[in-house]
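call fold(seq) -> tokens
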Amino acid sequence: MYKKDYTIYEGLKYWEKKTIGKHLSEWAEKYSERTACSDQERSITYNELYQRALGIASGLAENGISKGENVVIQLPNSVTFVEVFFGVILAGAVPIMALPAHRKGDLEGIFSIAEPKAYFIPESYMGFDYIPMAKELCKEYSSVKHIFTDIVSSDDSVESIGSLNGDVREFDEASPYDTALLLLSGGTTGTPKLIPRTHSDYMYNSMTAAEKCEIDENCAYLEILPCAHNFSLSCPGMLGFLSRGARVVMSPSSSPDEVYPLIEKERITHTAMVPALIPIFTEVLEWDLGYDLSSWKLVQVGGALLEPHIASKIIHSWPCDLMQVFGTAEGLICFTDKNDSEETICNYQGRPISPADEIKIVDTNGNEVPEGEFGELLSRGPYTIDGYYKLPEVNKHCITAEGFYCTGDRAAWSSVNGLKMGGRMKEQINRSGEKVMPAEVEGYLCQHELIDEAAVIGVPDEELGHKSVAFIKLTEEADSESVTRQDIAMFFKEIGVAHYKIPDMVQVIEQWPVTSVGKIDKKSLYNLICDK
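ret:
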């Protein structure tokens, strides 16, 4: 089985043989009294963050949590999240980055495979009470010895995060090439996939991304997406901005009603969003409510495909530049560049951020395809994993003998414009032997003047094997009867699209179901059709 040799990357700029905890101590010394992070209730300087993280680390040690043991963090965006994240790392333990939207069914497989010793939760968030769920998980998984929450509870089985404030001590420091944290891959049902990222590779990822985004001490990053998500943690995210002495501001939600006032108040320069958020943010901008957004320099959009017409709207109607982002928590990160043409920024997802990143695009036989042709994207490089946590059988299929990670993403490469993504390989619909790619059909649908967004899925069919179903969200001026399947068939014929790519069913939708990170939830769409 392939094993990564990190030493071959030691000559790279920003590759440092330091732990994340060591980086924090250096930031505390360099940027001591500068504000590191703030939320609605409080702010904290770099030195205060380091001292509080040391207190949490010492408290964890006093509770028997030591180097290499796993700890689940499921906290919303807050200063407390940042303190706990660094506290766990300073203790030498390994944080597992759960999202606030995860529920018991999402977490059971993770607890089973990772055997965490502690679990950090809010008392409640977005109307959900976490303590009963945590107690159930603790009862089922004996490895969990401590539940820590953000309040002082009368429940004896729950401890306060505030109580973690032990005497500062020396810790058994991890190696820079040890696992620093475990990220969650795609789905967490069935066999969950935990992604081990080392201290050196994760900070290289964060600091290289920060340079690409031109971050300095005067910048301010608004965390709109969940902090535990790789995009908002390290691309450049929280870690990248802190590495430059910048400020990180926590947004309590992804609503424009809260985000735009924060951009104005905090003089935010950078944000990151997923495509599902763009229409409502664009709509609110068009209302012209008088927000002063002049500080806003850049919005990164990633996590799912951004349709070209929506990218164009950002470029022409938003007060900031657009950077398209393609990335995987398993490794490879690609950015478009501010000097790219509008056509490139709207239609491509960028180039790898590291000169040491290697990519291949291959056919179903593993052979590289010519430039411009679609195939599966494979990647290898300084911050790409060499395997999932405790899943040797899975690793045999997703890591090649040469160490390339098989992303499962469909992509084409242009030496001029970079990567063009085309959805997931598994999403491909086999319709009577013809291969239909949902992302391609979604792109055609969004060219229709009355269709704002589209999502295409495949469902079983007795005659065709699988048929395609298009969910469409119409523009404001259209009503639910404005676009029928016949209209779409005529439109596809007009623009020269093959007949077999015409959706077999068309359904108008007013509100998208979304995943815990704001992507359109195609599983819910599939269930919606199957339940009928």
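The chain is about 30% helix and 25% strand.
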